[in-house]
Give the backbone structure.
Amino acid sequence: MSDLKFLSSYAVDSSTIAILLALLLLGCGKDSGDDSNKRQDAQCILDSEDLYPDQSTSLYILPWTIGETYLVTQGNCTNRSHRVQLNQQFAYDFNLPLGTIVRAARDGVVIVIEESYPDGTKVPGEENYVSIQHDDTTVARYIHLTSNGVNVNLGERVQRGQAIGISGNSGNSTGAHLHFDVMDGNCGPQFIDCHSLATTFMNTAPHPHGLQEKVAYTAEPL
Ligand SMILES: [Zn+2]
């Protein structure tokens, strides 16, 4: 990546900082601490309380096969990678084992695909992923897919529930999982100036303040 050139430079200006920040963004890196009091950002949770769309009118379904159940291993407003400072406070990590079918959570058009990286490198920026833009211009991202794990083509229109890829452990990831978030625009692989959006899912247990960390959710029939 050409951006890495900046890392060897002594010049620290605002663009350098922005790029370093961006390199952090794609990842779901290792827990930075084991103090449970520090695992979530209380102010972020307070500020977000009213932002979650009513589940009954949600346009999203859980991004896996109906009947399957997965655990939220990192929820919203954490002090790890899903933090407000990284514009990722509304991202979710789910414990999909490597090789699990990932499905579109909402109808849209495929605007970014990347599937060239091997699993397990743990290198930020080496994430395989799909971005799907919805009719309202918001963009869902499905990140850490396995090598060659994208099943859709650029520009393809996909339907909610359609298989779009295979889960994996690519990029900044310490184990197989799916990182899912919805952004307010197409941020591309580096998403400066994009912001994550509070998301609920119509086909699972009630979650008025978003899916909760350490809780398993089943994709119920529609
Ligand atoms: Zn994540």
